[in-house]
Amino acid sequence: KKKKKKKKPDGESEETARKEKRPKKRQGSTSEGVDLEVATEEFGRASEINLDAPSVRSVQDDESMAPTASEASIDVSRVQWAREKEREMEERESQGAEKERLLLKRHDILVGKEQALDEKQCALVEKERLLLKQHEELVCEKEALDAKQRFFAEHVMRHDSKVLIQQVCSTAMNNALSRAASQTAPPPSRVPATKVPKLLVDVECQTDLNMQRMQVPTLNLELEDRARERAKVQGKLRLTRTEETEAAVRGHMEQDEERKRLVLEEIHNVDVARQILSDLDKARKEEKAMHERRMKEVVEQHEKEIREVKAQLEKAANDSNAEAAQYALSHRAHKRIVTEAEEKAQSLVHQAEARVRQLQSQEEEIKHRMSRNAAMEHEMHEWRERRTSLDMELKSRQQDLESRESGAHATEEALEKKARELKALMQELDCRERAMSKTSQTLAELLRKERELERHRIGNTASMGWNKALLQAQLKRMKSTYTPGNAPPPPPKLPGEKRQAATLDGSKYLAAETEGNEAIVETEKRVHRLANEFDRLVHNLTARSLERAEACSPMSQGGKSPKTPPPVFT
């Protein structure tokens, strides 16, 4: 019967025979078929096999060779399950790529923020440099102001000393002229009345001496007028100079206040920028911590996925090695499926290894970026330290500026004190000038009286000489005309007249001359006393003003300036 069935020419009968034969063979080994089905299902689940369309077509083409319909349905479900798994893997890969792209985008944003922070830091450094430059300019201007104040103080001292020296020189010149005028005339000598011929003087010499003495008060008056005009001009100059100095000091103070306000505004701007920088640093640190946390999570997730894939691959490899013999014994379709599964597993292993290498390269790149971020953080730390050092230097320079401002206030107070002392000295000088004017008026009055006395003395001397000459001529004529024995008779005596002997010694004229000479001597003594008193007062005033100027000078230490040389009177 079997041979007859094999010889049937129809293909349908052959197919039915085959279908009948196969279940008969499987009926004896049902447990073995069930084990194979379970093994194939587990192998599909573990290895996540992705069967391509050609393999599916080959399986469908070989359905004619498949033993049963249940096996074909199992193959189709397994293919669908593998495709779903492949879709899930592709979705996971796309999600991982999207996350990686987001991480790269956030990293680029962080890099941009760091660049912006660097630019702001550079701007802050530039602002600090400008502030330091402005501070240096302020210090230079302050030094220039101090130099101007010192020059003004020295100029005032020189001017006062020059004025006093001129006054002293003028008074000394006046005294020298008055003394020279008084010394040109010989002092009157007291001659006894018996020596009449020695009292006769030369009238021309006496007139020259009188003319010189008359010129002395005119010179004194001219010098006094010049000194008065000079004092007026100097008073005006002092007033204008003090006003100009006060205006200049006020202007410098206003400029210092304006610059101080600008410096305070810049400091406020720097504080605001520093606050903004601190906020940006905080935000950057938070963003960096979040980025590191997310990167760690992503790396851990990738490592977990890699471990899972490796475990699945190892399990699939083990299962495939254990079940390869059973598939080889079962059917050539199963062998083809096993070979395709092995090839797919190897391709998946290669893909996983490539993915692992890619993830390792990404991890290295992330580590490189993290090291770069650490280097940038170190550089930012160095910039912060430099900024703190610059802040400390700015604070120290600001304190130095405040100390210089306090020194400038002290110098201004010293200048105000010096101005008050100069004002008091001017008042004292005015009082002394008024006293000197009164003294000069007294001297002029005394000189006028001296001139009147001299004029009277000259007139008396001339008349006395003339009378003496007449008397001597008469005496000579009488001696030559009359003899001692033949004297002329005296003139007739009038009633009540008392005759006196004619005196030829000129005692009357001599008494008048001696009285005039004594008055002149007393006047000269009084003039000398007044001149000495005037010299003493001028010397005391000069010494006191110089001591006050040295004590009030701004560069003096304790009232004495060891570096200031004494004034040279040229």
From TrEMBL:
Residues 9-18 have a biased composition (Basic and acidic residues). Keywords: Coiled coil. Residues 1-77, 480-499, 549-570 are annotated as: Disordered. Transmembrane segments: none annotated. It comes from Eutreptiella gymnastica. Residues 292-369, 408-456 form a coiled coil. This is Uncharacterized protein.
